[in-house]
Design goal:
The complex is a heterodimer. By secondary structure, chain A is mainly α. Chain A has one domain. Helix content of chain A is 75%, strand content 0%. In chain A, α1 crosses α7 and α4 (58-70) packs antiparallel against α10. Chain A is globular. By secondary structure, chain B is α/β, with parallel strands linked by helices. Chain B contains 9 helices and 10 strands. Chain B has helices spanning 40-47, 69-73, 91-101, 106-120, 135-147, 165-179, 191-197, 215-221, 227-237, and strands at 2-11, 14-24, 29-33, 55-60, 63-64, 76-79, 153-157, 183-187, 200-205, 208-213. In chain B, a hairpin with a 2-residue loop joins β1 and β2 (14-24). Chain B starts with a strand and ends with a helix. Classes of the chains: A mainly alpha, B alpha/beta.
Chain lengths: 235, 239
Amino acid sequence: MNKQIKAIFAKEFYGYFRSISAYFIMGLYIALSLLCCFVFGNFFEIDNQSMISFFKYQPDILAALIPGITMHLWTDEYRSGTIEFILTQPIKYKDIVIGKYLAAAAFSLIMLSMIIPLVVVLWLYNDINLSAIISALVSCVLIVLSFCALGELVSSISSRPVIAYLGSLFIIWSITMFSPDVLSENTTLSGLSFRENYKNLINGKIELSSIIYYLSMAGAGLWATVAIISNRNKV
Amino acid sequence: MISIEKISKNFGPVAALQNLNFKINYGEIVALLGPNGAGKTTLIRLMTGLLSPDDGKIKYDEEEISADRVKVLQKIGYIPENAPLYNEMTPYEFLKFTSDIWDIKDQIFSDRLEQLINKLDLRTVMSRPIGELSKGYRHRVAIAGALIHAPKILIMDEPSEGLDPNQKYGLRKFIKDFSTQGAVLISTHIMEDVEAIADRIVMINEGKLVADTTPMRLKYQMPERDLSSAFRRITEHNK
């Protein structure tokens, strides 16, 4: 990572901790995760060796919260006028986009790491299927990486955080709900289904195709953000 | 030397700038004048790579900004209108952040920081959030940010807007000092500033260059012998 990306990363990452909303999002994540796991997920009634009742709801919880983490990435620059400052510094647009993305992803991963104590407690008092849990955690990390890129993309389009939040929520939710096998019986298309890929991972099947699926979503989001920021310059 | 060569820029059907040509030499302070909507900010945005021209070239020492934006920006210190800054940062954090973007070594940063703190009288506010600072201090922090990499060219959009007379005096002195080692372009419509510091005036109206001369010459071309009247006559005549 070059010094310029590090500078952007540090500014954005420490910026999260200056605001109370970051702590609120973390608290909300824990509360929603526990609520979904123990109340809706019937944690005590089903076999939870792989914490299925916990991981089942993670895409929906992350889809709701990650737009809250990414919504300020570019909207604040537009609103405060600092976009003119940052885009006239001798730094490549892609480095600014990557620095901001890494900050949002790092913050989201810290939020995700809050579930580790729960895994440890279960480990101490139960038999758990560690490989399945690791696979599910990997899938959550991949989801975070892809959602952060999509959130940053939408944030780069609007100057209003609320629009950025709702726009990201809509796009992310549409992607998570998209299931080609509902439209067609062609099972080869199921590889494009978000839920199908997630199901494979939380069932302990770490497949390269699923990893590529999420990483290409992240890559496409970042590429489109760089294109938007560069083309604002050409207007 | 900065060369603006046949620059044109349109926003849809509106021609913001039309075939603009002029040069700025090192050691010169050039005032960019024009009524609101004349195209001053568009020109500055083109000069700083924020916009791309539809036609023409902008060169800094023969290097075109559209060919290598990152390289050319290393020569420029730019202070946008209203000096937008990160309010949650302290001046020290802002200057360190800027220095890291410029990839300046820590020792060089410390030396330059010390010089800028003394020159711009920032010592008392270095650890206060920028959002809590007065307009004058915010302006000085923005200037420090634009100078942290020791640029050869300084571009300022409406630099003395909202400053009190003492702050304006300090700013003019600073610009004068800077121009001994580099080139300065200030966009303004405060004639007092122009008269006090500018070596040359470039005036644009409705996107066209309508005057490129010295303040003295412009002043004495008019019967009233003052810049405000000259500004009024030229911009109204060209409507």
